[in-house]
Fold these 2 entries.
Entry 1:
Amino acid sequence: MANYIPNTPDEVQEMLKAIGVKTVDDLFAEIPPELKLQSELNIPAGVSEVEMARELKALARENTTVDEAVCFLGGGAYDHIVPAVIDHILLRGDFFTAYTPYQPEVSQGTLQAIYEYQSLISSLTGMDQSNASMYEGASATAEAINMATAQTRRKRVLVMQTVNPEYRRVINSLCQTMGTEIVSVPFEDGTIDPGKVGELINKETAAIVIQYPNFFGTIEDIERISAMAHENGALAIVIANPIALGLLEAPGNLGADIVTGEGQPLGIPLSFGGPYLGFLAANKPLLRRMPGRIVGRTVDIDGKTGFVLTLQAREQHIRREKASSNICSNQALMALNATIYMSLMGKDGIKEVAGQSFQKAHYLKRELAEIKGLSFPFTGSFFNELVIKFPNARKILGKMAKQGIFAGIPLDNYFSGLKDHVLVAVTEKRSKGEIDRYVDMLGGLING
Amino acid sequence: MAEPLIFDLSKDGRRGYTLPELDVPEVDPADHIPARFLRKELNMPSLSEVEVVRHFTRLSRLNHSLDVGFYPLGSCTMKYNPKVNEDMARLPGFAHIHPLQPEDTVQGALKMLSKLESYLCEITGMDSMTLQPAAGAQGELTGLLIMQAYHRKNNNHKTKIIIPDSGHGTNPASCSMVGYEVVNVKSDPRGGVDMEDLKSKLTPDVAGLMITNPNTLGLFDENIGELANLIHSVDGLVYYDGANLNAIMGWTRPGDMGFDIVHLNLHKTFSTPHGGGGPGAGPVGVKSHLEAYLPNPRIQFDGKKYKVTTKCRESVGPVLASLGNFLVLVRAFAYITVNGREGLKDISTHAVLNANYMMQRLKKTYKLPYDRFCKHEFVLSGKTLGEFGVKTLDVAKRLLDFGFHAPTVYFPLIVEEAMMIEPTETESKGTLDCFMEALEMIAAEAKENAEILKQAPVKTPVRRLDEATAARKPDINYYRKPE
């Protein structure tokens, strides 16, 4: 009913006349009659803007937001502070209603922002280069594996069991079909024992895939395990939490060949899972294996600095079946979101977000240690996410949700052996008061 | 004036954002994390809030965008993006929910997704839909995984996919990603699939056909029913690339044409914004015989509650860690709700009317290789300007000086010096007239003074860029200069 079509009935008649037909039906004449829809589509009639908004607002109200409840959920998406500036810039039509920058002369805004994004991601991860974005963390990791198998011409990939289980499922769907053999490396004490990697790695191994910090929040020894990969001619793929890198050493300085992951912590709203931002950065020898778009700095015919999509001979619109990936649309606007976030936070801000998340998570752990009946099953160092264990966990999580705290992710969703284990995340957004309330409520329910 | 890089605006000590004071007792990270894992150095710019706002605002002004003007990019369906949809995507109940919240607390979101699935099934004539794929290309990959799983289950030995030579580049690239070999099939003189060529390539190892209809020439292939039958006769599946759905909504449906698998581009047909290259959404619909293979997770309604299930054993598994690009899906839902059944048909009607109106006039100035009614787009050739030493690229660049975006150029590959024009339904006759006038003036300029075209653009923030050096000595990271 709302009308985004400007042509008036008179104009339609003029246009039909210019074309030389009587009705619009004539323009659809070559669709065989047996294929033409004989009735209207069976969906509701159109409504006005305000009526549509009423329906969507009612649906939105049926959800409990992380501002109504207090969110201690992580597992790949985190409730960080999102500065107001970001959305105001994203809402500029010049950005969000622009197309892929295929005509660089009229796309310098998008192109320069992508160049800045690539530089910031490279710097954060400690790598030589980043592409312009991927869909999200899991599928970006699958693409990183495809890069490694193509580069090494090997098929065996060791994926640590401490990698986010959702990512491992996506890797299985997207990589095994290419004949890639995925070998799972089991964990002990919530972390990967390099000895275990040593048992499973061999000269057929294309890559190891490890998460930093891992799914349980624990900081893995990516340095030693990357070195083991290199000793066997394999590549080290590190899935990193970009905010953790404000406190933790860059994977590029610890031996990573490809760093990938989920950019949502960089100022992207939780959005029920998307749109998020996959990032993918690698070192120089892998430049021509990179999937997706890359922006380069150059000059125009007057010698003025400008930016273009470059190295396009890797991409599907040029190379078709020989392309390094099929990716076309990416997550450009989310890359811009992350670029604005990193620019606004800056060096000191990123460090502080990471530092406060670390401090508050460690404060929570100290306070939880006082609760009888609650234990910490894993002993490794952690950043802002940790696993706790207590009896009747699922039931208690349900009660806490009803009382306004999303208290954690039950891990038996993913690991049948981890009954009553709960993954808890703390960001800089949580206040001491919220953390204290969490501890009081949980303690009361465990011992009540 | 060029806008400096954000790095060159940086001054150590500046802050663009203030966090709340740390309100918990502090510990020394060095007591908790081994020193070799603590960050030594972090290179990031430091700016004030106002500098950040101005930098990105100034950058934005260097872009062409839909909000500024016409974007006749063939195959991209650059239609107006309704503003209210942005508001809907920012409702706290959608924007601020965590993907792993208890199901009880996201019933509204799941209900919306479930309704959107059923709308898209109805629009395409399919039986089931997954909203998970993040973009058209990921939809293609998902569709091909479904195809593969189906053939595996049925013990069919299949290795090849047939693709018309007019197909999108993502089609063959997606095939390679699942290990299928690509067999190209020629187009006939009317621009459809050459049936004889197809028959000659139809061997028992053909897994399926990937095709868009109308195709990338903007032409509806009347033989589509027979095409589908032929592919089915060798136990193949027929895949619909939904990039061009904007031509046929409410008129005909892929499901009725015999397609087994369909992907849609919500960032085209359903008006979700392109965002400078994404995010999009590429839902995939299938007929009932393929439902079991759809990606986990699926959304189900048990009569009381919406649930997310991952139980289906035949499923190809998830292709993303989440249910999809959720806020893109919210926008598409808003768009379908506002337009409704008659509005969606009107969209296709006007998209086709606009395209034919332009084609009839422009064919007098530029070569039209396939002269028959088009659907939502048409392809001209700039070849006739070759005698003046002018290429299609020069026409495209000159259009930028007139304040228009260029059409898609040099695609499809089967038309020399191709210019692919898709006006969409949201452009007025007045805009189309102005654009056509510009194209006619440019053709006249080519004849009279081709140098104007070769020098173009001159009114844009930068002029033609040196792409060759950019590729030879890639400068793609501010912090690591090329050697």
Note: Chain B has 14 helices and twelve strands.
Entry 2:
Amino acid sequence: MTTTVKVPELPKRTKKLYAQDIKDRFISIFIGIFAVVWVFPIVWTLWSSLRPYSEIRAGGVFSPPQELGVFNYASAIDRMELPTYFTNTVLITLPAVFLILLLGSLIAFVVTRYSFKFNVAMLLLFTAGNLLPPQLVFIPVFKLYLLLGDLVGDRRFLYDNHWGVILIHVAFQMGFATFVLSSYMKTIPKEISESAMVDGASVFTHYFRVMLPLLRPPLASLGVLMITWIYNDFFWALVLMSTDNKRPITSALGRLTGEFVTDYNLLAAGAMIAALPTLIVFFVLRKQFVGGLTLGSTKG
Amino acid sequence: MSVETAAPRGEQVARRRRFFTRQDKITLGFFIGIPTFLHVALVWFPAIATIGLSFTYWTGIKIEDITWAGLANYENIFFNTPIFWDAVRNNTIWILWFFFIATPLGVLLAYQIDREIRGHKLYQSAYFLPVVLSLAVTGIIWNFLLRPDGFVNGLLGLPISEAISFFGDERYNIWVIMIMASWRHIGYIMLLYLAGLKAVDGALREAATIDGATEWQTFRKVVFPAMKPVNIIVIVITIIESLRAFDMVYIIYGSSGGLPILGVLVFNNIAGEGASMKGAAYAVILFLLSIVPIITYLQQQFKDDVR
């Protein structure tokens, strides 16, 4: 922070800096104590998940462990049918994120690279749409899904179907993707597009060959953020699905909490497994996650 | 948006026209058309339809059964549904708590971490951790600490028969939920604010310190004003998140209304057996409450585009 030139000239200032140093030490310790408090709930859940519930019922929460192991995990995977729920999560999350990135980048591309009368209005439409409360949208979407289902002769065409949940995520989050990607695209020099057009590239080539490769960094950030958001979604899969074993893991947790209420430590293991993919994001892809989060809020 | 070229105007227009072949026009049509159709059909159309439906009676089976209700659904909510006011009270507490406690803590945390105090990298990770977890998992994790035979009651030395019911007892439940919600919110605000702080010119702060400003003065007079755009976003996010709260409360209380909040009330009236257009009216109320933060957000983000 300070340069060596400044130190000798003002002894008063060094004294002040010293005081600040001590203050900083206190601040650091204070924040440190709370940091421990912050991770404690997760550590405690992890610890509980390694013990049988019967031990805690017999000896209380602080009883020394006699048995430690991953038995709760094995049993959670088996009894809670976690593989089914995880498959559902993958079947919903991957297509949804792919479509969000594709469609969002298409709109952002057209809006920033070609000038139409309604450029800003379009962008506003998508960004505002993303901010509407999901509850405001639910009733008509639900009826629409049933109606379309009746039209094609299968009530579960969209309602109670992965595709119904995928489509609503795409429709909503596309707004956010459009907003983030368009502010990124504005920073890409116009000359690149112009030279492509002068070379006679079609709109199609312009998008896929010229722009898309340049969009890799924001697409990666946005992709990680979207995966986390959709993975963590609780509401849509809860209301748009009626068959429990079609639900993704996060929404299934609601029912599992009720069902396994008698074996808390099994539930702890289940929750830790459900948290695992997001913990991977935390440990491995944090740069992208934070990048995606802040791209949208501070405009790069 | 104008192209700066030395070419005469006529030539430029001609050149530009050549770019759009028939095929290009079709491509552009699809590029805009498909996303716009999907977005309008599944977000805007339903949103407007819900507003319309909130003025009707409908059990939601046949379209012919819809009958005009005027303001009856709203009257019902405002005058005959005491739980609505409980929910309003709880959501208000939620907003105030986030606004005056959780968000400022997140901001101060970001400020200290940005100053690179000792251990800042580790601290940043610790506070960031809850942000990636789903609210459903958060609910389960905290349940572990707070249930009758959980950690906190164990720490207080209370046997199960005398244990404090943190989620059931009305003296505690809203505050317990506030702490749980803050657990995630503080880290979220910290991350947003940190990104903003990185963009503030370090020389500004240096200059303030050299001029003899204290840490607090530097923050209040120099850093905070420079962060105005981020401040607005943070406030908007704080309000929108507090109004929309649903997941965590639902996973702990289900539909029971043990802690009424607007998100759960809407849910109880639109989904499942109890569906009625009173639910639509609830959703519209929720929307109207969030309209100011939504517009503020849009104004902030689009102020460069719309002049």
Note: Chain B touches chain A through 105 residues (CB under 8 Å).
